[in-house]
Amino acid sequence: MSRPSLALADRRTQRARLVGALHEQRKSRTDLVEQFGVSSSLITRLVRGLIDDGILRELGVQAQSIGRPPVRLEVVRDHGALLAVSCTADGLRARMVNLHGGIIAETSSASTDGEVTPESIAAVIAALIARTPRVLAVGVAVPGVVDAATGDVSAAPDLGWTDVVPLRALLQERFGTVVTIDNDVNLMMAAERRVLDVRASNNAVYLYLGTRGIGAGIIASGRLIEGDHGAAGEIGLSPLNANDRTDFEDTTSTRAIAARLEAAGHTVNGQVVDRLLALADSGDQAALHIRTDVITAFSHAIAVITALLDPHVILLGGHARAFRERDHDEMLQPLRGDLPFLPTVRPASPKPDAVLDSALNRCWQQLLTGGL
């Protein structure tokens, strides 16, 4: 469906769409007239107002051979800031950027006893907000079920949250700014999608192995699938088979794998899956048995995902990036002949900043959606 004409939109929306067009690329008034298909007088009025409000500024003229040289426009870098927070079982990472994407400040803090609280999230945000006079939007990525309509987090096992947390309402009340709350795996999927080819980017699943939880970010027919309550992709809550109601993540999260290795007499430091695979490769019988169980569990999850969604690619993220090509083949082998099509299974890209970058992008989108 085509977007409605700029000329028919209200003024705040008109201004936001112009700023959005100039966010990543400098353009002239003529460029904007051509892009939006509206009169030069409308563009001139909108641009003049945005310049007066300090949101846009004019740059030097572009060199050209004939005619009057056009004046380029850009978003004023320091008009405001965007702030993103990524929450994991290990703690918090936060980044504040200007409107050109330049980093103003970054911070991180370790979790206490493996848990992150809403109060600790607010404290990190407050500390960064104190360093700049104008924060326009805040985005928070959480490993849990997020209701897109309300910003409530109804479950976040990696953070130790079991009750509903009205996180967006809490942060909006405290800071009085635009706040977005997103599932972190959905944000990882959004970041990965930007580098996939066209076919893969329309039908892809990001399968994330976390410390306590396992989740999936789903793109189907070109759309992010969130579900009625924001719980689409909670594959970790599915039972492994009809006779055993044990959840996928109860047996296959890195915490569960580490507990089984330690019960077998092994020390586990650092990357759990790497340790498991190394022990199995060495011929350790306990590790071989655990590895078989883990591969089988992933094979089951891939079968369910493929039967329901028919993705072109399944990207293994988080701790699951440690699985190798031969592990991927072993996950797919039991499914050959049982399903009409099998996806490609491969590791997700190593992008440590993907969640923060996607959260900042969501901040920008939400800010423009509200108008300027």
Structure description:
This protein has 372 residues and is of the alpha/beta class. The protein has three domains: 6-75, Arc Repressor Mutant, subunit A; 79-188 and 353-369, Nucleotidyltransferase, domain 5; 196-347, Nucleotidyltransferase, domain 5 (2-Layer Sandwich), CATH 3.30.420.40. It contains 13 helices and 17 strands. The protein has helices at 11-22, 29-36, 40-52, 118-129, 167-175, 184-193, 198-202, 248-252, 254-263, 272-281, 285-309, 325-332, 354-369, and strands at 27-28, 56-61, 71-75, 81-88, 91-98, 103-110, 135-142, 145-146, 153-155, 178-183, 204-209, 214-220, 223-224, 239-241, 244-247, 313-318, 344-347. The strands form five sheets. Strands 6-5-4-7-10 form a five-stranded mixed beta sheet, with helices on both faces. Helix 2 crosses helix 3 (40-52). It is elongated, with a radius of gyration of 24 Å.
In short:
This protein has 13 helices and 17 strands.
Features:
single chain; 372 residues; Arc Repressor Mutant, subunit A; Nucleotidyltransferase, domain 5; 3 domains; 13 helices; 24% strand
Topology:
Blueprint (H helix, E strand, L loop, with lengths): L10 H12 L4 E2 H8 L3 H13 L3 E6 L9 E5 L5 E8 L2 E8 L4 E8 L7 H12 L5 E8 L2 E2 L6 E3 L11 H9 L2 E6 H10 L4 H5 L1 E6 L4 E7 L2 E2 L14 E3 L2 E4 H5 L1 H10 L8 H10 L3 H25 L3 E6 L6 H8 L11 E4 L6 H16 L3
Helix pairs in contact: 1-13, 2-3, 6-13, 10-11, 11-12
Main sheet: strand order: 6-5-4-7-10
Low-pLDDT runs: none
Strand elements, count: 17
Task: Please provide the ordered H/E string of secondary-structure elements.
Answer: HEHHEEEEEHEEEHEHHEEEEEHHHHEHEH
Here the CATH topology of the largest domain equals Nucleotidyltransferase, domain 5
The biggest sheet amounts to: 5 strands, mixed
Structural class, judged by helices and strands? alpha/beta
Gap from first CA to last CA:
24 Å
Percentage of residues in strands = 15-25%
> Judging by the overall fold, what is the CATH architecture of the largest domain?
2-Layer Sandwich
CATH first level of the largest domain: which class?
Alpha Beta
Mean pLDDT: 91
Q: Sum up the overall morphology in one term.
A: elongated
- In CATH, the homologous superfamily of the largest domain goes by the name ATPase, nucleotide binding domain
Helix percent reads 25-40%
